[in-house]
Amino acid sequence: MxxxxxxxxxxxxxGGVEPQEGVVAQLQESRSAQGSxxxxxxxxxxxxxxxxxxxxxxxxxxxxxxxxxxxxxxxEGARVLLSGLFDNTTVKVLDLKGNNLRSSGAEVLGxxxxxxxxxxxxVLEWNALxxxxxxxxxxxxxxxxxxxxxxxxxxxxxxxxxGASALALALKRxxxxxxxxxxxxxxxxxxxxxxxxxxxxxxxxxQLEMAGNNIPSDTLKALEQATGHNSDRRSTLRExxxxxxxxxxxxxxxxxxxxxxxxxxxxxIDRQRDEMGRSSRSTSSQIGQLQEALNERKSAxxxxxxxxxxxxxxxxxxxxxxxxxxxxxxxxxAEKEEQREQHSKARKKEHEDAVLRQGKLLRDIQSLxxxxxxxxxxxxxxxRRCKSQQQLIxxxxxxxxxxxxxxxxxxxxxxxxxxxxxxxxxxxxVNSSRDFLCV
Length: 439
Description:
Layout: H1 2-15, H2 21-33, E1 37-39, H3 47-59, E2 65-67, H4 75-83, E3 93-95, H5 103-115, E4 121-123, H6 133-145, E5 151-153, H7 161-173, E6 179-181, H8 188-199, E7 207-209, H9 217-279, H10 281-413, H11 418-438
Parallel strand pairs: 1-2, 2-3, 3-4, 4-5, 5-6, 6-7
């Protein structure tokens, strides 16, 4: 209980919501009472408080009964608060009396019934779930999917014959609901007939309250008879179950007695078996000795057999090796013969190539010898020509020296004579041309 109060205060702080004093006081009282019932009846719960309580209910594992009657829940607050109970696994009784739940409340209640698997009793007195047919149909669809609820209170919810028809369809497929209170609605004749038709298929409803719905007395009587039949069937079923339990206990007792007898018989058999064992031990010892001797002989035979198998295996292995060596020798001989032929062919080819190369070399040597003789002759001819040219150059140099000396002598004699100058000049030109030609 204290954990729930701390969770509530922590969630208020995290969400920035001011804790309601009435809720905190009620949680404190519930902690003092050390009970599993949370009673917030008459507390005006805001939407923020509903949001915080939804988160707390989602994690709650303490309360089995929650009373939220006359809390003036808004549509948003009811939607948020009930969504926190979708996955709750501890709350079995939920009281939402006098909260004026309408269309959105009916829808979220349908979702609650479809998802929650632990809720057993749901009180929805003094609400307005039946005002909108479509929303109430969603509520009925959730009831179809529910397999845990046994008591449902829908007093004063303005349910008309359309809502009764939707509820009747749900009851045809629901097999767990036992107590249904529909007093002080507006179901009417058509709704009553729909409920009567549903009870022809539903075998779980044992208590159906329909007062104050403008239903004719004969229809009410038929409904009472149908629920009476279900109640009788339930009583018969309970008696049958109780008888079954009694018979099961008797059968269990008989089984235990038979078990004891069987154990006694097994003990007797064990004693007889021990006596027979003692009487047969001597025979067993003799048989054991014979068996040992037989085992020794068998071991010797097995040893000889193993040696024979090993010898045969060694012989087979030797034969296999001999065969492999013969094959290997044959391959080596063939390879050696092939190599010999290849070597002979190679030597023959090399000899032929050597002869060809030798002839070619001889021809090349002869050609080079001839060329060398010609070159020697050319060299000798060029040497003779060079010597003759050198002799000619030497003679021209001597002649040039003599001519130069004569010119210098003549120049000294005829310095002022122009005619002599011109003559000397032409003479020099002639000599220069001759020297050039000589060169």
